[in-house]
């Protein structure tokens, strides 16, 4: 398997209530990220799926870099101090800016409103031509199906252009992320 060295930003849940299939897909993703000599960039948390990604990558020797806000760290004590690099930023806008600047691609695993917010941010930037990095949804057991139906509904109401939907790829496994990423890189920076 070819090495990539990609810095992949994973947006995902800080909660643990997801299915075992989601956690297995995360483990598979971490296995391939190790094989490809990549780095994990994520929200800097130590709980839920977010913490699971960090733990699994660290266990495999994958470099883990996270960004969280001062308020999240002080209020909820969520920052994972055992990762390779933890950035504390003033607010969520700066956190997103860090992701946008540092990541080579964005991987959206199952998550809640924060994950959806981050996903919509990168989709918006890409659809407006402000971002040229791959965006990949990991749709385990149809987790994101209702979101995709909402996008279709918005298109049918003429408030969402089809090219906004064309900004991302959907896969159904952790390993699938890397196949999609390899295709996007071969197609060039517009994908």
Task: List the topology elements.
Blueprint (H helix, E strand, L loop, with lengths): L6 E5 L8 H16 L3 E4 L5 H13 L2 E7 H7 L8 E5 L2 H11 L2 E4 L4 H15 L7 E4 L6 H12 L5 H4 L3 E3 L2 H14 L4
Structure description:
The protein is of the alpha/beta class and 191 residues long. The protein has a single domain (7-181), classed as Rossmann fold. The chain contains eight helices and seven strands; from the N terminus they run E-H-E-H-E-H-E-H-E-H-E-H-H-E-H. Helix 1 packs parallel to helix 2 (48-60) and helix 1 packs across helix 8. The longest helix has 16 residues, at 20-35.
Quick summary of this structure?
The protein is of the alpha/beta class. It has eight helices and seven strands; from the N terminus they run E-H-E-H-E-H-E-H-E-H-E-H-H-E-H. The longest helix has 16 residues, at 20-35.
Care to count the β-strands? 7
Give the termini distance in whole angstroms: 22 Å
Q: Output mean pLDDT.
A: 94
Give the percentage of residues in beta strands.
15-25%
**Spans of at least 5 consecutive residues with low confidence:** none
What is the N-to-C succession of helices and strands? EHEHEHEHEHEHHEH
- The CATH architecture category equals 3-Layer(aba) Sandwich
Figure out the total of helices: 8
Number of domains: 1
Q: Under the CATH scheme, which class? A: Alpha Beta
- Strands of the widest sheet, in order across it, are 4-3-2-1-5-6-7
Report the helical percentage.
40-55%
Radius of gyration equals 16 Å
Net shape: globular
Strand count, sense and closure of the main sheet? 7 strands, parallel
Q: Which structural class do you get from the secondary structure elements?
A: alpha/beta
CATH fold name: Rossmann fold
């Amino acid at each position: 398997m070819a090495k990539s060295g990609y810095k992949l930003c994973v947006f995902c849940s800080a909660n643990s209530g997801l299915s075992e299939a989601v956690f297995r897909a995360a483990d598979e993703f971490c296995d391939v990220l190790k094989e490809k000599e990549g780095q994990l960039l994520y929200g800097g948390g130590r709980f839920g799926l977010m913490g699971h990604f960090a733990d699994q990558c660290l266990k495999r020797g994958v470099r883990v870099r996270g960004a969280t806000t001062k308020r999240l760290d002080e209020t909820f004590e969520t920052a994972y101090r055992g990762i390779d690099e933890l950035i504390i930023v003033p607010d969520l806008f700066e956190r997103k800016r860090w992701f946008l600047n540092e990541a080579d691609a964005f991987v959206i695993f199952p998550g809640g409103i924060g994950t959806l917010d981050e996903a919509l941010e990168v989709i918006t930037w890409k659809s407006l031509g402000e971002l040229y990095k791959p965006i990949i949804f990991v749709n385990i057991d149809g987790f994101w199906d209702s979101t995709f139906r909402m996008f279709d509904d918005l298109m049918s109401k003429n408030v969402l252009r089809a090219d906004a939907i064309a900004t991302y790829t959907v896969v159904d496994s952790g390993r699938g992320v890397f196949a999609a990423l390899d295709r996007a890189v071969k197609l060039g920076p517009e994908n």
